[in-house]
Amino acid sequence: MPQPDSDLSVGQPDILPFGAVRTLLGECPVWDAARGCLWLIDSRAGLLLALDGEGAVCQRHELPPPLGSFALNHDGRLVLALHETVVLFDPASGQLQTLGRLEEQHPHLRLNDGAALSDGSFCVGTLHTFRAPGEAPLGGLYRVDTQGRMLRFDQGYGVVNGPVQHPQDGRLFVCDSSERQIFSYPWPPRTPWLRQPFADTRALGSAPDGCCFDDEGGLWTALVHAGALVRLDASGQPSQHLSLPLTHPSSLCFGGPALDTLYVTSISDSGRLRADGELDGRVLRVGGLGRRGALRPMCRIAPSNPT
Q1: Residue 293, domain member (yes or no)
Q2: Among 2, 132, 167, 239, which residue has the least CB neighbours within 10 Å?
Q3: Cβ proximity of 122 and 141 under 8 Å
């Protein structure tokens, strides 16, 4: 694997395990500023967890696995991407309200990573594995609008990860982990949505996985096959690189009261990636980066016709 240049390395950050949770497939960390807690999922186990400021589990919800992703909604509910449906979940009652469903069903197709967008909608993409050579992936990228309507706006992604918006210009950035590529879309969206290449992570020895932005517009992504994080500048080139004491980091977000701490989820057994080191599957807390995060938006989905 190519090694980063020395000037890209981060000097002496603090990297510590956060709490005692160990996941099979930790994903989708989201900082809840109002409650001062970190939400995440164990996708393979079907667990939705909230950790308090010390890393202790303060909420635990069992849902049908696999869980793809989630986002906070304005009314205290959460938007969840289940296997093939997007739902609103009430953590107080456990009630699920279906918003939309994939129009295609296939044994190796499911919903994967997703995130809230600045207009209150939810963006989510699919994962289509075990395709034959040359076989086009099913599914694609979907947007659930604030009325709860789910529509596909792009296709051709093998494994969608890291939907996230630029904190200044609003552009939407999306990874196709199967191709080791990151793309962007102008915002507000156009019809049709116009996909543009942003970065290629093959030279970094890994697919890109989950993503987040710092407040200066640097895109951070988890290098899931390289045990590292990388910050990409406005031209898609690495500007900081951080090696981690675990094998497969999966996603990340900025959090803490000052949004100056990175929280990183990881994998111990995704079904395809496995590792059994002391910190594999744990959540890491990374301080001392000299960066602050950009607060992520919240969904504002309120269906007019509950189903």
Answers
A1: no
A2: 132
A3: no
8 A C-beta contact, residue 141 and residue 125: yes
Please give the structure tokens belonging to residue 4: 């980063």
Indicate whether 297 belongs to any domain: no
Percent of the chain as helix, strand, coil, to the nearest 5:
0, 50, 50
Strands 150-154, 160-165: parallel, antiparallel or unpaired by DSSP?
Answer: unpaired
Nearest-angstrom CA–CA distance, 258 and 260: 5
* HEC readout, 118-183: CCCCEEEEEEECCCCCCCCCCCCEEEECCCCCEEEEECCCCEEEEEEECCCCCCEEEEECCCCEEE
Greatest Cα pair distance in the chain: 56
In sequence order, which residues have a C-beta less than 8 Å from that of residue 216 and are 6 or more positions away? 291
pLDDT tens profile 88-107 = 999 999 999 999 999 999 99
Provide the 3-class DSSP secondary structure of residue 8.
helix
- CA neighbor of 23 nearest in space, from 65, 84, 54, 83: 65
Q: What is the domain-level CATH number for residue 149?
A: 2.120.10.30
Task: Give Cβ neighbours of residue 26 (< 8 Å, ≥ 6 apart).
Answer: 40, 41, 42, 43, 250, 251, 265, 266, 267, 281, 282, 283
pLDDT digits (tens, 9 = 90+) for 273-292: 999 999 999 999 999 999 99
**Structural domains of the chain, count:** 1
Q: 180 near 202, Cβ under 8 Å?
A: yes
Classify 19 as helix, strand or coil.
strand
Contact 135, 127 (CB under 8 A): no
In a domain, 298, yes or no: no
Domain that holds residue 174: 6-287
What is the rounded distance in angstroms from the CA atom of residue 250 to the CA atom of residue 23? 11
- The number of angstroms, rounded, from the C-alpha of 107 to the middle of its chain's C-alpha atoms is 23
For the segment 175-216, what is each residue's pLDDT rounded down to a tens digit? 999 999 999 999 998 889 999 999 999 999 999 999 999 999
